[in-house]
Amino acid sequence: MRFLIDAQLPPALARWLTIHGYEAVHVSEKGMQAATDRLIWDCALMEGWVIVTKDEDFAQHKVFTQAGPAVVWIRWPNTRRHQLLVRFEVVLPAIVAALVRGETLIEVI
Predict the structure, then answer these.
(1) Which residues contact 85 (CB under 8 A, 6 or more apart)?
(2) Residue-range definition of the domain harbouring residue 52
C-alpha cells in the first residue's frame, strides 16, 4: 500500500508509515509542497498512491468521480505531531482494511 501525505499533515507521518512497513511519501519530498490539488490528484493517480489529507476538497472530488486515487480524509482538529501519530496508530488497521475491501473514500473522524 502506497500513501501520499498531503501538505496539511506532517512529513513525520510518512516516515512513521514507512517504519510500519508501508510505502509513504510526503508531498514535500516530491517537490509538491505548494502544488495544486489537481497536480497532487494526478500524481497519485499516475503513480498509484492513496492520498492522505485533511483537505475536504479531495474528499469532495472523490465523491463526484469514480476514477482517481483512493482518499483517506483525516477530520481531526490540529494536534501536536506526537498526538497525531498516536491517533493514527489506532486507526491505521481500519484504514488498511477499508482500502483492502476496495473503499476509495475513507473518512477518519
Answers:
(1) 12, 13, 16
(2) 2-108
